[in-house]
Amino acid sequence: MTNKYTRYDKPALASNLFLSGGRVVDPRTGIDQILNLHIRDGVISGTPDKAPPEADIIDLRGHWITPGWFDLHVHLREPGKEVAETIASGCQAAMNGGFTGIACMPNTQPALDDAAIVNWVRDQGRTFPIDVNVIAAVTRGREGKELVEMSEIVEAGVRAFSDDGNPVKSTSVLLHAVEYANMLGARIFEHAEDTYLADGGSMNESEWSTRLGISGIPTISEAIDVARCVLIAEYTGGAIHICHVSARESVDLIRQAKKKGLRITGEVCPHHLLLTDEHCKSFDTNFKMNPPLRSEADRRACWDAFLDGTLEVYCTDHAPHSWEDKTQEFDIAPFGIVGLETSMGLALTHFLSKGMSLPTLLERAVYSPREILAQELPAIRSGATANLTIIDPNHRWTVNPEEFKSLSRNTPFAGWELTGRSRGVINRGYALIQAF
Ligand SMILES: [Zn+2]
Questions:
Q1: Which one of the listed residues 298, 317, 325, 392 is annotated catalytic?
Q2: What's 105's domain CATH number?
Q3: ipTM of the complex
């Protein structure tokens, strides 16, 4: 194999590629079989037995080829904090993690709160195999007061608005935002938090916070806002997506709302599925994020909800912070951890072995996030854009933050031994195939 496809900074064109002998898994198209794929100018041109002339042959025996994975909750730090992450470095981290699409949150400086800046952000990602979607701010400057020009932003292709990092504190503003977004075919993503209850907290309020002497954030600070969102969704008929669900009370509310047929969706992050508040006893700030790591009962409730589809989206809440920021004391350090480059390995290692099927995982990581953003779903068939993630399910590796493409290293999963990782991504006419 040539190594021209290993470049992250300037990905090669997928002009004539023959992906040989991989297991193609596309649940929505109903495919699960060993197939050769020929890609011509970024499009799946067919499934020939032999490599067409001049094609670059990639031997993918023992690999899986799935529709491209999507991370619905990513913080890029550009504009404003490029030392922690740029749009380009975030795209490269996404490529390394096996994603072909991301949705980035608007809490940059300045905030992503008008059509011009939304277009600028998307444009920065144009030379990568990544669809950079923007979730625009709900309110100007994310100040919680005045709604952004939603119709102009929707015209620019955005289908989601969020003041993430913060909740939309004013219920009146939130109600109007949901109504207006609904008229435009968009939805609100709520960072569910009652800031009065959460104020000053750095970890889950629990036996552990008491023992460690760290101020706590109770689970109901999240659930109270989820309840508010459920009531607003019922009252308006609008759609609300609940970000990074962490509490069992929130899970119960979302499950009930779905039973009623309300347009409430929810996402869950790997750390809330795999870690608990006990990890904070190390005082390692890589275990500090918002919402915080919760109790074992909360973790289990999130896992059950993830399995049964109450929480239909698997996302990372990738939140890069510089070493200087994260090496402060636990109660001073900023909330957040990176996630793009560990998400898939954690899922393949820890979810598939615990009763989640590969098709279900793909529902959570490929289809649901795009449906929530009203984006076209990738399909593996002749004539379709090649939007693919290539996975080596048997590759054993150890998480080493020094190898991240992200500019930040703040992960709680350093040193974890994982089995399975992305081998490459193809999308938008570009290809990355890793050399390992
Ligand atoms: Zn958030």
A1: 317
A2: 3.20.20.140
A3: 0.96
